[in-house]
Specification:
alpha+beta
Length: 128
C-alpha cells in the first residue's frame, strides 16, 4: 500500500472460509471495507491488493482478481441484495465467529487509521 501512496487509508478486512450462507466450507477469501476519499484511492487499493495477494498476475483471459465496489447509503438496493454501508458490515462479519483450523483465531484486521476515524466519529456522536 505504501508503493501506491495509500498507506494511511482507513480499511478493515476479515478472512473467511464459509459460503455466502455459512453452511459449507469454501476456499479462504477476504471481505473488507475502505474509506476512500476519491475513486483513485479505490483503484490504488485494488492494485495494491492484487499485487500483494496475486503476485505475477497476468490479464490474459482473466477478470479482476480483486473486486472493489462502492457502498453508498441509498434507498435503492445495490445489486439487488445489499443496502448501503450498514448491510455490507453485516455481510462481511457474518462468519467471523466461526472457527477454522486453517486460519486460527486471527482473521479480523482493522487499520490504525480506521480505528482513529471510528474513535473520532464516536467522540462527535457523544457530543450530540
Amino acid at each position: 500500500m505504501k508503493r501506491q501512496g495509500i498507506s494511511s487509508l482507513p480499511f478493515a478486512y476479515i478472512v473467511e472460509t464459509k459460503t455466502k450462507r455459512g453452511s459449507r466450507q469454501s476456499r479462504p477469501h477476504i471481505h473488507g471495507l475502505a474509506v476512500c476519499e476519491d475513486l483513485l484511492d479505490a483503484t490504488r487499493l485494488q492494485v495494491a491488493l492484487e499485487q500483494a495477494l496475486v503476485p505475477g498476475l497476468t490479464w490474459q483471459g482473466r477478470g479482476r482478481a480483486v473486486w472493489v465496489k462502492p457502498a453508498y447509503d441509498k434507498d435503492a438496493p445495490i445489486v439487488g441484495e445489499f443496502l448501503g454501508r450498514g448491510s455490507w458490515m453485516d455481510y462481511i462479519i457474518k462468519n467471523a465467529h466461526r472457527y477454522d483450523v486453517r486460519l486460527g483465531k486471527r482473521r479480523v484486521f482493522i487499520s490504525h487509521s480506521l480505528t482513529d476515524l471510528i474513535r473520532e466519529a464516536w467522540a462527535v456522536r457523544r457530543e450530540d
